[in-house]
């Protein structure tokens, strides 16, 4: 059973999925970052497995609720993305991401014929615990697609149905795939499914999507000022063989849920919240974060590191608002 709050039929949309208070907070920050850089001409939706109240400043966001029996547990919802997508063409973005630039043009980057991802074809090596060469033989594939499941392009046509029906079949089989104690992971299954139907992934040049884990940042990120700048150095420990050498600046930054209420996510989330929810101009929002929030955060971290009685991975509640 699905409940729909104010969702109008559109040909295109961006959307995310959030379950629980933490991921909803991440999704709200993502939605604000989307609005700041892209407006709301292409709808943005938040999907969940239980009802929630949108903050008043996000009344332009569409809300969709699906029962857990439809979306499954944990990351299983990603195997149902086509079914829950709010429009004929949709782009899914992980809730633990922030948008630093314009992405409305992203639909034009894909071939718009099949579901797709940003990645590359591989024929050997290991991908999410799968021996690529053996998997290609087992499933009669010419290649597997190496990618991160933080972004999916979805289209509700026959090709989309074929890919996700095959993914569902793999998930229901007895064949073991990468999983943890709570959920199965989406990448190996959907990689095989997309490869089975000869999907050509969008090449990753680093300027659409990036991951914070790969970023060595000396200065604080600022969502109001510029995109993050990465440097893909062949001699660095975090060198990415699939990206061009040199600097690149992604429009979408996957921060990771482990950075919730930590820098740099916390600072940019607060900048956006101060601007939209509390009507503060961008310069004032920046000023408050720079001169008040960041020093308090740094002091709190220092105190926590020096305390044997406090979990150093948690931030005091008084810093979060």
Amino-to-carboxy terminus distance: 34 Å
Number of strands: 15
Major sheet attributes: 6 strands, mixed
Low-confidence stretches: 1-9
**Major sheet: arrangement of strands:** 1-4-3-2-5-11
Broad shape: globular
CATH architecture descriptor name of the domain at 2-196: Alpha-Beta Complex
CA radius of gyration is 20 Å
Classification by helices and strands: alpha/beta
- By DSSP (H or I, 4+ residues per run), the number of helices equals 9
The pLDDT mean sits at 91
CATH C-level of the domain at 2-196: Alpha Beta
Compact summary:
The protein is of the alpha/beta class. Helix content is about 30%, strand content about 20%.
Structure description:
The protein is an alpha/beta fold and 321 residues long. It has a domain of 195 residues: Spore Coat Polysaccharide Biosynthesis Protein SpsA, Chain A. The protein has 9 helices and 15 strands. The longest helix has 24 residues. The protein is globular and about 60 Å long.
């Amino acid at each position: 059973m699905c409940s729909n709050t104010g969702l109008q039929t559109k040909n295109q949309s961006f959307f995310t999925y959030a379950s629980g208070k933490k991921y909803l907070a991440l999704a709200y920050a993502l939605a604000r970052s989307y609005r700041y850089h892209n407006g709301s001409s292409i709808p943005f939706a938040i999907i969940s497995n239980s009802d929630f109240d949108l903050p008043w400043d996000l009344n332009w966001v569409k809300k969709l609720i699906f029962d857990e029996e439809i979306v499954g547990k944990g990351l299983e919802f990603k195997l149902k993305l086509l079914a829950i997508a709010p429009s004929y063409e949709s782009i899914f973005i992980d809730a633990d991401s922030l948008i630093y630039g314009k992405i409305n043009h992203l639909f034009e980057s894909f071939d718009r014929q099949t579901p797709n991802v940003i990645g590359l074809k591989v024929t050997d090596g290991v991908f999410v615990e799968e021996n690529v060469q053996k998997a290609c033989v087992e499933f009669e594939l010419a290649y597997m697609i190496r990618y991160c499941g933080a972004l999916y392009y979805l289209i509700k046509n026959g090709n989309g149905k074929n890919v996700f029906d095959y993914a569902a079949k793999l998930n229901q089989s007895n064949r073991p795939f990468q999983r943890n104690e709570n959920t199965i992971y989406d990448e190996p299954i959907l990689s095989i499914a997309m490869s089975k139907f000869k999907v050509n992934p969008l090449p990753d040049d680093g300027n659409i999507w990036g991951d914070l884990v790969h970023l060595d940042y000396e200065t604080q990120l600022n969502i109001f000022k510029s995109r993050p700048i990465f440097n893909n150095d062949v001699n660095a420990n975090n060198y990415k063989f699939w990206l061009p050498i040199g600097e690149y600046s992604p429009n979408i930054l996957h921060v990771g849920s482990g950075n919730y209420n930590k820098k740099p996510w916390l600072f940019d989330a607060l900048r956006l919240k101060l601007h939209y929810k509390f009507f503060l101009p961008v310069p004032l929002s920046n000023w408050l974060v720079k001169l008040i929030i960041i020093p308090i955060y740094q002091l709190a971290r220092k105190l926590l590191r020096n305390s044997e009685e406090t979990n150093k991975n948690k931030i005091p509640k008084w810093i979060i608002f």
